Amino acid sequence: MCLWVLDSVPGIVDPEESSGEVEKVLETLQTLPKTIPSRTWLVDHLTNLGFTRSLSEWIGTNLKRSGEHFTWAFNLDGIIQMFDSYRKMDYWPLLEHPPKGMEIVIVRAENSDRWDPHIIQKLESLKNRTSDESEGKLSVVVLPNSGHWVHVDNPKGLLEIVTPKMVSLS
């Protein structure tokens, strides 16, 4: 079994130490009308608010047609609740003692602003420690040329990291 963690800090996230980018996206989505006229309208609106075109286009992929307009394919309130839950959880104990038979792979984006040096150092020390057969494995991989939005910033590089692991599991 393999658990993938994409550019997410494993400890409790202090909102004061966060860049606020995800929060800004979620807050902006909450201000939008319930129905969106078109994907083009959404992308233009988000880029006019200062979001990158690639991020705005990715957000637009989460729309579904509803009659003449579009609505979200996800539950925005649910996403906000999951994000808040993520920030409050401490997963260091899981990384320190992964369950037997599980590999946890953390993909850290090279240009992400999420990672303090002490967190990177702690991950590296956990990754390099010797473990016995009674526990699983922790891997840390750096995705080059990517910020936090790994699937938007470097989808090819992410696929190059994920594919060999997926093939080995089949």
Residue share in β-strands: 15-25%
State the separation between the terminal residues, measured CA to CA: 11 Å
Structural class: alpha/beta
Largest sheet, in brief, is: 3 strands, parallel
Kindly report the average pLDDT value.
90
Rg measurement, Å: 18 Å
Helix content: 40-55%
Beta-strand segment tally: 5
List unreliable stretches of 5+ residues: none
Order of SSEs: EHHHEEHHEHEHH
Descriptive key words:
170 residues, two-stranded antiparallel ribbon
List the helices and strands and how they pair.
Elements: E1 2-6, H1 21-31, H2 39-48, H3 53-60, E2 63-66, E3 69-72, H4 76-88, H5 92-96, E4 103-109, H6 117-128, E5 137-143, H7 150-153, H8 155-169
Parallel strand pairs: 1-4, 4-5
Antiparallel strand pairs: 2-3
What does this structure look like?
By secondary structure, the chain is an alpha/beta fold. The chain has eight helices and five strands; from the N terminus they run βαααββααβαβαα. Helix 6 (117-128) links the parallel strand 4 (103-109) and strand 5. Helix 2 runs antiparallel to helix 3. The N and C termini lie close together (11 Å).
Q: How would you summarize this macromolecular structure in one to three sentences?
A:
The chain is an alpha/beta fold and 170 residues long. The chain contains 8 helices and 5 strands, in the order βαααββααβαβαα. The longest helix is centred in the C-terminal third of the chain and has 15 residues, at 155-169.
